[in-house]
Specification:
Blueprint (H helix, E strand, L loop, with lengths): L3 E5 L6 H13 L8 E5 L9 H7 L1 E5 L16 H6 L4 E4 L2 H5 L5 H13 L3 E6 L3 H5 L3 H13 L10 E5 L13 H18 L9 E5 L4 H8 L6 E4 L6 H8 L7
Parallel strand pairs: 1-2, 1-8, 2-3, 3-4, 4-5, 5-6, 6-7, 7-8
Helix pairs in contact: 1-2, 5-7, 7-8, 9-10
The structure holds phosphoenolpyruvate.
Phosphoenolpyruvate binds next to strand 8.
Length: 253
Amino acid sequence: MRRVFGANWKMNGTVAGALEFLERMAGMGSSSVSPELVLFPPFTVLPMLRESAVRAGMALGGQDLFWEESGAYTGEISTGMLREAGAEWFLAGHSERRHVLGESDRIVRKKLEKGLRNGLKGILCVGELREEREEGRTEEVVRGQIDAALSGLEEASACNLVVAYEPVWAIGTGLTATPEEAERMHRLIRQWVGDLGGAVSPEELRIQYGGSVKPDNAADILSRPSIDGALVGGASLQADSFMAIVRSTPDGQ
Ligand code: PEP
């Protein structure tokens, strides 16, 4: 299975910074590694990155999208706009959108459905809050998010969908799930996706781990058989640390 690594820049980065990042990635040989690499910069930066992204062997993605194509939706961005800007991927259900901006499972589903239907590839982010974990509700919460997003979703397949398991308490905190905990959740997610009986083959589905992945913990996390890559925030802002994470797997050499 081809691993996939996402660099989620959140609300960080400039055109100059992104061009420099891609040049540095290319200089470190990013175009010849076997994992798939995707950069999610701010929307405004996307159109200026196409050529450099090709040289770096990286695809581009939007950090979000809206479920209508045009109209009176101030501040939103459509799949057509993203595609025009060079994006092939999008994120749906990132915890900052769920918990800072109040996006419900219903909204995440609408975004995922729209993006996949319009030919983009999606990363569906799921994960429990610290309180939910402490209450012993991790499985219930994550399964609920998976079911709400994927149940009956005909557009989804293992070719256009990646799931990112990102425990919310681990995002940007320096805390990480242990590799054993992450592996256990990834196996459960695979099982739950299989239970839905849709077109997403659970064996072929790629499931990333996300939450404070850094060069010094990546090898341990990524050595687990059900962990097929990482979604990286903070450590993806520098090409050197992002590339060190990619290179921590045997196929990233
Ligand atoms: C993320 O934004 O998805 C993320 C995992 O961030 P960080 O790596 O900074 O925890």
